[in-house]
Amino acid sequence: MAKIMGIEFAPLIVPLKRRLQVVAVAQWVASFMFLGFFSLFTVSYLAFTRWWPLVAVYLVWFVYDRNTPSSGGRRMQAVRNWSLWKRFRDYFPLTLVKSCDLDTEKNYIFALHPHGVLCVSQFCSFATEGTGFSKLFPGLTPHLLVLDGHFLFPVYRDYVMTTGMCRCNKQSLENILSSSKKGNVACLAVGGALETFEAHPQRLTLVLQNRKGYIKSALRTGASLVPVFSFGENELYDQLSNPIGSKLRNFQHWVTKYFGTPPPFFHGRGIFQYSFGFIPHRKPVTTVVGAPIEVKQTKEPTNEEIKELHSKYVAALCHLFEKHKRKYGIPANQHLKFI
Asked: Quick one: pLDDT at residue 278?
């Protein structure tokens, strides 16, 4: 490992297995950040070539199929089973831990914490079989809910749906939970875009105090609430300092409000050096799925009922965190902070 002009370079000789792990993660990051725009550019270009009839047919399909991301999506198990995702998992590595069995005759909301910069562990655990979800939870079908923007890009949106991802909105959430077929799991990073800005190493701040939409949906559908915590997710990237009230944080909030996409200023490592780049750091992340909170279905929940269930959920999340934190390297004197 050499360091030249402050840049720490990777060794020239690295086992092929590790190289393939880097490639698996790099392709995912590139897809997440650029594939949508590349798909849009390609389709726009083809529209002015002899391939325009194909583009026209696809655009008709695009309009006809526009509601599918809000209606349970269109998963392809073959894509979820790609060996690529196992290399992705082994790069960090990522681990999914089950703390108790879940009834396949019920529907669930997996409330995911923390959001992190790119939801790396959440993607691998719930949008792929990289960490063995189907083996740990046979009979359950996970749907990872992501920003609507992913489904605005032609072709890319069809690829995204093959993993089981769906739109992150009330309609999509309740369609999944109201399905006549039981065993559905809506996986939702409840901190949302704003929690991205709290994704600093060794920081445990969650945006949760005023997040109650998922609580109301749980009551309306009778779905059980399950706290899920990914120990190590915030360690995968470094961000510029952006304390609440700073000019950078205010700018980030403004962009998120008007464009719907959070702009974290982050960096990880590169392919051949460890000092900067968009690839996450090679650090372990363990995602622990907690015990379910049973919810009685209430079609029109009151504010008091929502507040009561929210308090119960926060207590269950804190219990899950405190029970497992020492095992995954978090000091005893460090606790969750909610904003």
From this structure: 94
CA count, 13 A, side-chain hemisphere, 205 = 12
CA dist list (Å): 190 to 92, 156, 195, 196, 229: 24, 24, 9, 11, 12
Reported confidence tier of residue 10, pLDDT bands at 50, 70, 90: confident
DSSP for residue 279: B
Q: Dump pLDDT digits (tens) for 127-147.
A: 999 999 999 999 999 999 999
When computed from its CA atoms, the radius of gyration of the chain, rounded to whole angstroms, is 20
Name the residue among 130, 139, 126 with its Cα closest to residue 73. Answer: 126
Q: In this structure, what DSSP letter does residue 325 have?
A: G
Asked whether the whole model's pTM tops 0.90, one would answer: yes
Q: Provide the residue range defining the domain that includes 161.
A: 2-338
Number of domains forming the structure of the chain: 1
Reported for 174-179, long-range contacts at CB under 8 A and 24+ positions apart, including other chains, are 174/217, 174/220, 174/221, 175/70, 175/71, 175/72, 176/72, 176/107, 176/143, 177/107, 177/109, 177/217, 177/218, 177/221, 177/223, 178/221, 179/72, 179/107
